[in-house]
């Protein structure tokens, strides 16, 4: 599955009809297809796709097709042990580059490292604290995103936007992605969730 947005748009070829289309920035594309048509990616060095459409696919408005990363086999490289001596560095050289070197330098560095490590752990723990939301609350992180992300990127109808916010209520992974500012991850995660949400809406409408 593609987990980065920079690869879009992609070119998709229907080898049966020889029709080629280009996806949008979210990976969506439209194409006339029938059962047993084969879809492949073209002009792409990083991802591959070879998918044959099934009769079951044709009953859905949206069909999810996941390209796979191409595996690159690298030649084995033997790395010998590297030491400070092999790099031409010894304790005398290190000490000579310090102004008023402290003979207990190693102890000082250990204390500083321990302090920084302890402080970092505490800050990380605070950041990773999860406050559980009530069942009737919207996901505030998703709700604060531009509305166009939901309607244009995820293709969720405007009338269902607020319902999608509630649907994402108990998804705390998306909270972390958005807080970390990892746009590629939160967009791909939301895209996957939106498929499930729209499928759920379709099934409810058919009941």
Structural features, described:
- It is a single chain.
- The chain is of the alpha+beta class.
- The radius of gyration is 26 Å and the shape is flat.
- The protein starts with 10 loop residues before the first strand and ends with a helix.
- It is built from seven helices and six strands.
- The strands form two sheets. A four-stranded antiparallel sheet has the order 2-1-3-5, with no helix packed on it. The chain has a two-stranded antiparallel sheet with strand order 4-6.
- The model has no long low-confidence stretch (mean pLDDT 78).
- It has helices at residues 91-96, 105-127, 140-143, 147-153, 161-167, 173-179, 183-206, and strands at residues 11-14, 19-22, 38-42, 47-48, 50-52, 68-69.
Poorly predicted ranges: none
General form: flat
Radius of gyration: 26 Å
Strand order of the largest sheet: 2-1-3-5
Structural class estimated from helices and strands: alpha+beta
Major beta-sheet overview: 4 strands, antiparallel
Mean pLDDT, nearest integer? 78
Distance between the termini: 32 Å
Classify the beta-strand content into a percent band: 5-15%
- Total beta strand runs: 6
List the SSEs and their pairings.
Elements: E1 11-14, E2 19-22, E3 38-42, E4 47-48, E5 50-52, E6 68-69, H1 91-96, H2 105-127, H3 140-143, H4 147-153, H5 161-167, H6 173-179, H7 183-206
Antiparallel strand pairs: 1-2, 1-3, 3-5, 4-6
């Amino acid at each position: 599955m593609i987990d980065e947005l920079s690869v879009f748009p992609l070119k998709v070829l229907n080898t049966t009809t020889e029709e080629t289309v280009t996806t949008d920035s979210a990976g969506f594309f439209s194409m006339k297809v029938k059962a047993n048509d084969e879809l492949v990616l073209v002009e792409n060095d990083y991802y591959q796709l070879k998918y044959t459409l099934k009769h079951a696919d044709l009953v859905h408005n949206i069909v999810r097709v996941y390209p796979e990363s191409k595996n690159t086999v690298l030649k084995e490289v033997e790395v010998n042990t590297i030491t400070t001596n092999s790099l031409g560095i010894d304790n005398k050289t290190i000490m000579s580059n310090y102004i008023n070197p402290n003979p207990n330098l190693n102890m000082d560095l250990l204390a500083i490292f321990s302090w920084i490590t302890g402080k970092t752990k505490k800050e990380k723990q605070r950041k990773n604290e999860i406050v559980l939301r009530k069942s009737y609350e919207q996901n505030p992180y998703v709700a604060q995103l531009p509305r166009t992300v939901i309607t244009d990127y995820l293709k969720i109808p405007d009338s269902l936007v607020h319902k999608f916010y509630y649907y994402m209520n108990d998804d705390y992974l998306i909270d972390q992605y958005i807080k970390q500012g990892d746009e590629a991850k939160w967009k791909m995660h939301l895209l996957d969730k939106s498929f499930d949400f729209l499928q759920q809406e379709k099934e409810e409408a058919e009941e």
